[in-house]
Specification:
Elements (H helix, E strand, L loop, with lengths): L2 E5 L3 H14 L4 E5 L2 H10 L4 E5 L7 H11 L5 E5 L4 H9 L4 E4 L4 H30 L8 H13 L6 E4 L6 H10 L8 E5 L8 H6 L16 H4 L4 E5 L6 H13 L1 E3 L6 E3 L3 E6 L3 H6 L5 H7 L2 E4 L10 H16 L5 E2 L1 H9 L5 H15 L3 E2 L1 H7 L3
Parallel strand pairs: 1-2, 1-3, 3-4, 4-5, 6-11, 6-12, 7-8, 8-11, 13-14
Antiparallel strand pairs: 9-10
Length: 387
């Protein structure tokens, strides 16, 4: 049942608004506040789906109510009620975040359309937040160890900047999760995050994949094609396993970082791009530099912020939390009841040698859930978790 609040110092106007809204839809729960102070107090204590607010009121005017309400509950649509002399102010409140304004005396059709549009918009905002939370959860970083807490602290500090980040660590440790957290907590979160696995793309195709190509630039180039840098414009590009990138592609990436420009293969036309670059590797890039396989100047461009993701064997205290997280996630995906793990089973998992890191742990948990008993025991670990 939608909740609507009317903040208006004139009792007659409040009665008219409430009557129109209630008669249109009896399911609407309409409440009243006779001044701005009372209205703010009610907004703080109740989740409203829509607020109507007069502009000229004693104690606190409508503009101040709007500004305070947007700080308390930014998702609430607020419609300003304006007298003839308040129209200019009403228009200005739109810049401050008001959803709309209606004039006194209220026009019936305009008022009802405004109510419908505002409630629809509130529903969309709530749904978008729910979806965003769902997406974020799929890239959740689980753990309370000192190493993971340190990584979370770094992300909080650098996510809002455009600083380039180089993420290092063994395979299977969750380097891509760090990249996703950086993107989702940044001001670029509404723009694309484009992932490129540099190790999975043949060296002769990596430049085309990153920068695009023009028709006829090589065999099979039947039409112009944009690359990953263009696709990520305004957002983030994640260059995974960048240590496997060819030297010629490295040179072009370096230019893109230096000049914020790229050139498609077979073209001489520069294309401007605004992209944050996050890179990851399981290799020791300093050793790669000494062997001539990685450009030192590119390394220094990428490694403005360094994040080292630890192996699972170095954060065994996080294993109980990870097991619980994977158990919940797997049962949600596959259906059925979540299985508990006995203390002895958890202890055995903590003593395990996790050469495959987080990825291996997830596979083992899934195997135990499918093949184990209602409670995963020490016996199940011995039977189904052996290498």
């Amino acid at each position: 049942m939608p909740k609507i609040l009317i903040i208006e110092d004139e009792a007659a106007i409040r009665r008219v608004l409430k009557k129109i809204i209630s008669e249109e839809n009896e399911a609407h729960n309409v409440e009243e506040a006779e001044d701005g102070l009372q209205g703010i107090e009610m907004i703080m204590n109740t989740d409203y789906d829509l607020v109507f607010c007069d502009i000229k009121m004693p104690k606190m005017d409508g503009v101040e109510v709007l500004e305070k309400a947007k700080k308390i509950k930014p998702e609430i649509p607020i419609v300003m009620i304006s007298g003839h002399g308040d129209l200019e102010t009403a228009v200005n409140t739109m810049r401050l975040g008001a959803f709309d304004y209606i004039s006194k005396p209220p026009d019936l059709n305009r008022l009802l359309n405004t109510v419908r549009n505002a409630l629809d918009r509130k529903e969309l905002v709530v749904e978008n937040k729910r979806l965003k939370k769902k997406v974020s959860k799929s890239y959740e970083m689980v753990g309370e160890s000192k190493a993971i807490s340190h990584i979370k602290d770094i992300i909080e500090k650098v996510a809002a900047t455009d600083a380039r980040v180089l993420i290092t660590g063994p395979n299977g440790t969750g380097k891509e999760l760090v990249a996703h957290w950086l993107h989702e907590k940044s001001d670029r979160s509404n723009a694309p995050m484009v992932e490129v696995n540099c190790a999975a793309i043949p060296s002769e195709l990596i430049e085309s994949e990153l920068f695009g190509h023009v028709k006829g630039s090589f065999t099979g180039a039947n039409k112009d094609r944009a690359g990953k840098f263009e696709a990520a414009n305004g957002g983030t590009i994640f260059l995974d396993e960048i240590g496997d990138m060819s030297l010629s592609a490295q040179a072009k990436v370096l230019r893109a970082l230096q000049e914020n420009k790229i050139t498609r293969v077979g073209s001489d036309k520069d294309i401007s791009v605004n992209v944050r670059v996050v890179a990851a590797t399981n290799k020791n890039l300093k050793e790669e530099i000494s062997e001539g396989r990685f450009r030192e100047d590119l390394y220094h461009r990428l490694a403005v912020i360094l994040i080292q993701v630890p192996a699972l064997n170095d954060r065994r205290e996080d294993i109980p939390l990870l097991v619980d997280f994977f158990s919940q996630k797997i049962t949600e995906e596959q259906g059925g009841a979540k299985k508990a793990f006995s203390n002895e089973a958890i202890q055995l998992l903590q003593e395990y040698d996790w050469t495959g890191n987080i990825r291996e742990l997830r596979n083992v948990v899934e195997r135990l859930i499918i093949l184990g008993e209602n409670e995963v025991s020490k016996k199940d670990i011995t039977l189904f978790a052996s290498k």
